[in-house]
Amino acid sequence: MTTARLRATVASLLSAIAFGFSGLPAKVAYDAGFTPLQVTAVRIVLTAIVLLAFVVPFTGLPKLGSWRLVLGYAVLGVIGSPLLYFVAVSRIPVGVAMVLEFLAPVLVALWIRFVRRTRLPASMWWGTALALIGLAMIAQLFNGVSFDLVGTLAGLGAAVGTAAYYLLGEHAAKDGDPMALTTGGMVVGAVLISIVSPPWTLPWHAMTTPTALGPVWLGLALLALVSTAFAYVAGILALRHLPSAAASVLGLVEPLVATLAAWLILGQVLNVVQIVGAVVLLAGAAIVQVASGRRIEPDTPPTL
Q1: Pseudo-torsion of CA 41, 213, 247, 152, nearest 10°?
Q2: How many other C-beta atoms lie within 10 A of the C-beta of residue 115?
Q3: Exposed, middle or buried by CB within 10 Å (0-12, 13-18, 19+), for 81?
Q4: First and final CA of the chain: distance in angstroms?
Q5: Residue 153 contacts by C-beta under 8 Å, 6 or more apart in sequence?
Q6: Which single residue of 45, 58, 89, 285 could bond 190 by disulfide (Cβ 3.0 to 4.6 Å)?
């Protein structure tokens, strides 16, 4: 593994870990009276402000010709995936919604195989399947669930948004300016979501409510700075030297981190099946990493 590839792998893992911790500040905000839509709005708007202040002075805004890419990234990767996941959670068990959203690596692999016409090693498919089985064990998917069409479609929509996040990010990382895409996507996302959830509708009185993480405003600041700004930037920079198929499987570490954080901070104990599932997930991710390091030639010139 080259130094650049190793750094990209570490950045992708750090991104997944940062995303994984987003559930904690979001949960304390929900308990204080915020709705999922309001938390998402605060998260995106604060992140856009941070990136505008600290990134744009060095990178500038996206070029005019790339705004279609920015709009797609904003709608699918910045807003669509988390919002559809919240819709899914409101209709079906969290574990099922989590598994549906993280079908994204399969969608990424299918896109690469049938749209880009690139043959993937068999071990990459097996590793992805193994990682998904581990995720299903962590999410306790086998405990019996009832079917809900809207919730299921929302979960699958979240998977599409997550897959788009990796594919569009990879495209920008290799052919454009990934930091400009991230900043532009956040700014566009902030404008769009503010139309649906205006700032004046937020429960401002709840900002000082004490929680396990401190006042709610501190949790929301951590959500924006660590679990959004840092997570998105690290993730898209990693895609410069890491294939989207491999990065999307590494993203499966996110629900693992979320589960471990709930165990350590909120006292939600893991059982034996979940612990075994964590080992299986990591094994699958390791297999994909090894497989993605091989040189793979496309059947035809690749497209997005």
Answers
A1: -60
A2: 12
A3: buried
A4: 25
A5: none
A6: 45
The pLDDT assigned to 304 comes to 47
Comparison of pLDDT for 166 and 212, the residue scoring more: 166
Supply the pLDDT for residue 206.
94
* Full-model pTM: 0.82
Q: What is the 3-state secondary structure (H, E, C) of the chain?
A: CCHHHHHHHHHHHHHHHHHHCCHHHHHHHHHHCCCHHHHHHHHHHHHHHHHHHHCHHHHCCCCHHHHHHHHHHHHHHHHHHHHHHHHHHHHCCHHHHHHHHCCHHHHHHHHHHHCCCECCCHHHHHHHHHHHHHHHHHCCHHHCCCCCHHHHHHHHHHHHHHHHHHHHHHHHHHHCCHHHHHHHHHHHHHHHHHHHCCHHHCCHHHCCCEEECEEHHHHHHHHHHHHHHHHHHHHHHHCCCCCHHHHHHHCCHHHHHHHHHHHHHHCCCCCHHHHHHHHHHHHHHHHHHHHHCCCCCECCCCCC
The 10s digit of each residue's pLDDT in 120-140 is 788 888 888 888 888 888 777
**Is there a contact between 179 and 233 (Cβ–Cβ < 8 Å)?**
yes
Question: How far from 54 is each of 70, 145, 177, CA to CA, in Å?
Answer: 19, 45, 16
Q: Are 251 and 135 in contact (CB under 8 A)?
A: no
Q: At what angle do helices 36-54 and 178-196 cross, to 10 degrees?
A: 140
Q: How many whole angstroms separate alpha carbon 221 and alpha carbon 231?
A: 14
∠ CA(36), CA(41), CA(244), 5° rounding? 90
Closest CA to 68 of 60, 57, 76, 58: 76
Read off the pLDDT band of 69 (50, 70, 90): confident
- pLDDT digits over 26-63, tens only? 878 888 999 888 988 999 999 999 998 887 776 666 66
